[in-house]
Design a protein that fits this description.
Layout: H1 12-18, E1 21-24, H2 31-39, E2 43-46, H3 54-60, E3 67-70, H4 78-81, E4 89-92, H5 102-108, E5 111-113, H6 120-136, H7 138-151, H8 156-166, E6 187-191, H9 195-206, E7 210-214, H10 230-235, E8 239-242, H11 256-262, E9 267-270, H12 279-287, E10 293-296, E11 315-317, H13 326-344
Parallel strand pairs: 1-2, 1-3, 3-4, 4-5, 6-7, 6-8, 8-9, 9-10, 10-11
Helix pairs in contact: 6-9, 7-8
Family: Belongs to the D-isomer specific 2-hydroxyacid dehydrogenase family.
Keywords: NAD, NADP, Oxidoreductase
InterPro entries: D-isomer_2-hydroxyacid_DH, D-isomer_2_OHA_DH_cat_dom, D-isomer_DH_CS1, D-isomer_DH_NAD-bd, NAD(P)-bd_dom_sf
């Protein structure tokens, strides 16, 4: 009797080896919690777990890696790319692409996908939150109320309620609490009217603010006044909110001249990249009282933050966390998976970055 042969089932290790290989040099911050999802669909080549120097590790996988996951802090430059001749796709977890050499990617025929507009609403919310905090001194007032309550021997929560309700005279000597500013009617200049900038504009219009903007190009689809020169924008607004990408043109765009144009009553909010501002000049202006305040989610030399800013009540600091909500992180993971699946299926990327 002839027996029909049946293929033996592949074991899990063999199945994993047959999955498309995806290089990860340094994992995105949330990667540990979702690594299993990626491992079920891709064979992850984990450089960060290897004892080999990076160049040797990349050379060992030079001809079998066609896609790569890049974190927001992973530099993807010619030194990295020259070791990866088969690489054809980079998917980054970030909306920003300042760590990826797009010109070199274009030269090598490598497509790039980023987080698109996934984070736009959350970052815009953070920009408005920082702005309101700077204008209304929310954090400073909380600290003051807590300190007064502690000095009086009262529990923190109860002391704040009692102070606000019954003893406003205790605040009379506090410069912090005598320097509130309102938001309605303020002239807001947005630097970078992309998806995040538009979300910021939409929110601040609801507060009654007047919006104007500076971008690489004027946008015919919007009615806000356009300024081709950021210094002119600063001259004609009370608040500058930075939403632009970091590149050679925007590095230290906000310099001494722009800060002088913004003036002593001006406020600046940065949810873009730290190096868009000349940080040393910003610190000097804030310490000397030459601008009214700042809300900063990003810094030039992260994770380092200028210590001169710590005691200033008119400065609100956030540790580069504008994008970190549960909802947006989930959406970004789904988008990364979808972009990788699209690439390996020879379909268009969902959020391709244009190589201009």
């Amino acid at each position: 009797m002839a027996y029909q042969s049946h293929p033996q089932p592949l074991n899990l290790a063999t199945k994993h080896q047959q999955l498309p290989k995806v290089l990860v040099i340094r994992p995105p911050m949330v990667f540990k919690s979702v690594e299993t999802e990626f491992s079920q669909k891709f064979h992850l080549v984990k450089a960060w777990e290897s004892p080999l120097p990076l160049d040797q590790f990349l050379a060992a996988h030079a001809h079998d890696v066609r896609a790569m996951i890049a974190s927001a802090v992973t530099p993807v430059n010619p030194d990295v790319l020259r070791h990866l001749p088969s690489l054809r796709c980079i998917v980054t977890s970030s909306a920003g692409i300042d760590r990826i050499d797009l010109s070199e990617c274009r030269r090598r025929g490598i497509v790039v996908a980023n987080a698109g507009a996934v984070f736009s609403e959350d970052v815009a919310d953070t920009a408005v939150a920082l702005l309101i905090d700077v204008l209304r001194r929310v954090v400073a007032a909380d600290s003051y109320g807590s300190n007064v309550g502690a000095a009086g021997g009262k529990k923190r929560r109860r002391s704040r309620l009692l102070l606000i309700s019954y003893t406003p005279s205790l605040y009379k000597n506090s410069q912090t609490l005598n320097s509130f500013l309102n938001l309605g009617g303020k002239r807001v200049g947005i630097v970078g009217l992309g998806s995040i900038g538009m979300e910021v504009a939409k929110r601040l219009e609801a507060f009654g603010c007047t919006i104007s903007y500076h971008s690489r190009k004027e946008k015919p689809s919007v009615s806000f006044p356009f300024y081709s020169n950021v210094c002119e924008l600063a001259t004609n607004c009370d608040i500058l909110i930075l939403c632009c990408a970091l590149n050679d043109q925007t590095h230290h765009m906000i310099n001494k001249e722009v800060l002088l144009a913004l003036g002593k009553e001006g406020v600046i909010v940065n949810i873009a990249r730290g190096a868009v501002i000349d940080e040393k000049e910003l610190v000097r202006f804030l310490v000397q009282g030459d601008i009214a305040g700042a809300g900063l989610d990003v810094f030039e030399n992260e994770p380092e933050v200028p210590r001169e800013l710590f005691p200033l009540d008119n400065v609100v600091l956030s540790p580069h966390r504008a994008v970190f909500t549960e909802e947006s992180i989930r959406d970004s993971v789904d988008l990364m998976l979808a972009n990788l699946e699209a690439f390996f299926s020879n379909k268009p990327l969902l959020t391709p970055v244009e190589n201009e």
